[in-house]
Amino acid sequence: MKRPTYASTLAGCIAVAAFVTDQATKALASANAEALAGGLGVFPGFNLVLHRNSGVSFGMLSDVSPFILVSLALLIAAWLVVLAIRTERSSDAVGYGLILGGALGNIADRVRFGGVTDFLDFYIGETHWPAFNLADTAILCGVVVLLFLPRRHVRRKNAAP
């Protein structure tokens, strides 16, 4: 069996941190369900709300069985673990760790509650972005890291004489 590298250890630590942070904030939101029921204004353009999303992004696939969504998410998480173990680049490890931690946070919600706990509500005027959570934020940030950091490294490599 291959020894863990710095990058794979980093991915694991980031996944755990993302998972724990996500679950702690969802527990805090759920504990204050009554205060968040109608939305709690934090500042103009941002509310805290409490919403259970039985689908995936933006409520899509809400009519699909939670068992199927959990199974698919577990397959993706297993694939991310393999990628994280194989990577040697710290930037890739950060991306895989963020995506994995976020995915596991949402999987935990689906298993426990049948849907994902969302509580962050951003808006402009009367137009609201669909509510989301820190797991979703970690997944998005991980994708951004994977998409944009490798390009930066390639440019540096090609720019050298």
Span from first to last CA?
A: 39 Å
Major sheet? 4 strands, antiparallel
Query: What is the alpha-carbon Rg in Å?
Result: 18 Å
Q: How many independent structural domains?
A: 1
- Proportion of beta-strand residues: 5-15%
Folded structure, characterized:
63% of the residues lie in helices and 14% in strands. By secondary structure, the protein is an alpha+beta fold. It has one domain (6-151). Strands 1-2-3-4 form a four-stranded antiparallel beta sheet. Helix 1 runs parallel beside helix 4, helix 3 (66-86) packs antiparallel against helix 4 (90-113) and helix 4 packs antiparallel against helix 5. 31% of the residues are buried.
Give a quick summary of the entry:
By secondary structure, this protein is α+β, with helices and mostly antiparallel strands. It has helices at residues 6-31, 33-36, 66-86, 90-113, 134-159; strands spanning 40-43, 46-53, 116-124, 127-128.
List the helices and strands and how they pair.
Layout: H1 6-31, H2 33-36, E1 40-43, E2 46-53, H3 66-86, H4 90-113, E3 116-124, E4 127-128, H5 134-159
Antiparallel strand pairs: 1-2, 2-3, 3-4
Kindly list the characteristics that best describe this protein:
alpha+beta; 63% helix; 161 residues
